[in-house]
Design goal:
The protein has 6 helices and 14 strands. It is α/β, with parallel strands linked by helices and 275 residues long. The strands form 3 sheets. Strands 1, 2, 3, 4, 5, 6 and 14 form a 7-stranded mixed sheet that branches. A hairpin with a 5-residue loop joins strand 4 and strand 5.
């Protein structure tokens, strides 16, 4: 079994306070046997959905900046793998990247994924403050299988999860800041379940609370069953992941093996439906 933890917490603009919370939660995860801790999207600092772009750009840090260094020290001290969101400095003075960092137990940066699909929906416009990345990450080998990472709104793009699974991901990790709205809580749960079921893969999705976020972080197994879900309040959600579950499910539901890619020729970068 792989024991992982989802740190569903409120995230504020004070980086030092967020880093202190991370140290605390990593120590709690260590004492409870979780080897990997997943934090929410933009965990470094969160200002709310209508913060001016220049404020976010000014707050952003490079990957070798003080916040990542603090998280690296905490990972080393507790011997945990850590996945967390931050705003990374970009070449543009008025834009930043929405980046997810993967650290191993020695604090080494194993991956840094810049969110590629931005949340220009439900009256929000993430692209006003954020530059999109230009590639999906390769899955990261770890003691918990190969880790595939994508972010929040990207749950709505089945191609993202499928691409990571086809590249060999054993578990998909989704840091999020899923904002409340009409049907949003149902969509959050349904999308996590469907991405797990259609790819016969584990999916762990960690949301913030407060700041209009819904919470309700969850883990779905390769059959799309929710094996753990948090409340709308802060929690450290501990989950045991069975690495043999995907193989067992795929023996009964061999949908990945039944794919016929030669028939899917319209699924190209140039293929966008008329709106």
């Amino acid at each position: 079994m792989w024991r992982i933890a989802l740190a569903q917490i409120a995230v504020g603009p004070d980086k030092r306070a967020n880093l202190a919370r991370a140290r605390d939660l990593l120590e709690r995860a260590r004492t409870q046997g979780a080897g990997l801790v997943l934090f929410p999207e933009t965990f470094m600092s969160e200002f709310g959905p209508r913060t001016p772009p220049e404020v976010l750009a000014e707050d952003a840090e490079p990957l070798d900046g003080p916040f990542v260094a603090g998280m690296q020290e905490a990972a080393r001290r507790t011997g945990r793998w850590v996945v967390f969101g931050m705003r990374e400095r970009s070449p543009r003075p008025d834009r930043c990247y929405n980046t997810t960092v993967v650290l191993d137990e020695n604090g080494t940066v194993r991956a840094a994924y810049r969110k590629t699909h931005l949340y220009d929906a439900f009256g929000q416009r993430e692209s006003a403050a954020v530059l999109p990345g230009d590639r999906l990450p390769d899955p990261v080998p770890s003691p918990f299988g190969r880790l595939g990472v994508f972010v929040c709104y990207e749950l709505r793009f089945p191609e993202v999860a499928r691409e990571l699974v086809l590249r060999g991901a054993d578990i998909l990790l989704v840091p999020a800041y899923w904002v409340r709205g009409a049907l949003k809580e149902e969509q959050w749960t349904d999308l996590v379940k469907v991405r797990a079921l259609e790819n016969t893969v584990w999916v762990a999705a960690c949301d913030q609370v407060g700041n209009h976020a819904v919470g309700r972080s969850l883990v779905a197994d390769p059959a799309g069953l929710v094996v753990a879900q948090g409340p709308e309040t802060e929690t450290l959600l501990l989950v045991d992941v069975d690495p043999g579950r995907a193989e067992a499910v795929r023996e009964r539901f061999p949908s990945l093996a039944h794919r016929r890619p030669a028939l899917y020729g319209t699924l190209t970068a140039q293929s966008t439906p008329a709106l």
